[in-house]
Amino acid sequence: MRYAHRIVAAVTAAIALPAIACAATIGGYWYAPQYDYTDFWVAADNKPFQVILEGNPLPNFPYDEVAQRILPAMQAAKPRPNLTFTYNKPSEDPRPYYRLVLVADPANDLGGERVCQGVKRFKPATPGVFNVFAVYCRNDMPMSLTTAWTPANGPDDPRIQQLFRELFMVVFTDSLAQRPQNGFDRR
């Protein structure tokens, strides 16, 4: 009987270990009181949605190559609105100006408000780790933010697409807990 338990434990570990090894790590998250998923939906549905990539998340590869090769991973992992991620700046400054800013290897003291205002500070990169600070901005104000990192061998590593899938569920959450109560306090 004890031998059977050991076999079951070994098989379970063999199955679970690859899933754990491929998973991205999502850090803490924050949402502005003004965050509303419907605003994101209206701003992004059937439209291009700007992504600003600050820094190089894979410094062993040229920045332009990394940027172009992770864009399809972002698109494949996109949130529900029918949007197209782009690095192109809108021809006119939209008001409100929604965008996603990804800061690679951010400095530990870099906050979302500063990122939305265009400030960028970095810390030394960790080789083999794709590390980003994601900030969803409306004008100069962060609507949501989080950090995410995963081991990655290159821009086409499937763990990067998985990271974006998990990251977008946090940054662009449609959780009922984050929806405005429209004046009705349910406490």
Q: Give Rg in angstroms.
A: 19 Å
Number of helices: 5
Which sheet architecture does the biggest sheet show?
Answer: 6 strands, mixed
The tally of strands reads 6
The helicity comes to 25-40%
pLDDT averaged over residues: 88
Strand content: 15-25%
- Domain module tally: 1
Low-confidence stretches: 13-21
In N-to-C order, the SSE pattern is HEHEHEEHEEH
Strand order of the largest sheet: 1-6-5-4-2-3
N-C termini distance: 51 Å
Structural class: alpha/beta
Looking at the structure, what is the overall shape? globular
Question: Can you characterise this structure?
Answer:
- It is a single chain.
- The chain contains 5 helices and 6 strands; from the N terminus they run αβαβαββαββα.
- It has one domain (24-178).
- It has helices spanning 2-22, 37-44, 63-76, 112-116, 158-171; strands spanning 25-31, 48-54, 84-86, 98-104, 129-138, 141-151.
- It is of the alpha/beta class.
- α3 crosses α5.
- The protein has a 6-stranded mixed sheet with strand order 1-6-5-4-2-3.
Summarize the structure.
The protein is an alpha/beta fold. It has 5 helices and 6 strands; from the N terminus they run αβαβαββαββα. The protein has helices spanning 2-22, 37-44, 63-76, 112-116, 158-171; strands spanning 25-31, 48-54, 84-86, 98-104, 129-138, 141-151.
SSE map:
Elements (H helix, E strand, L loop, with lengths): L1 H21 L2 E7 L5 H8 L3 E7 L8 H14 L7 E3 L11 E7 L7 H5 L12 E10 L2 E11 L6 H14 L16
Parallel strand pairs: 2-3, 2-4
Antiparallel strand pairs: 1-6, 4-5, 5-6
Helix pairs in contact: 3-5
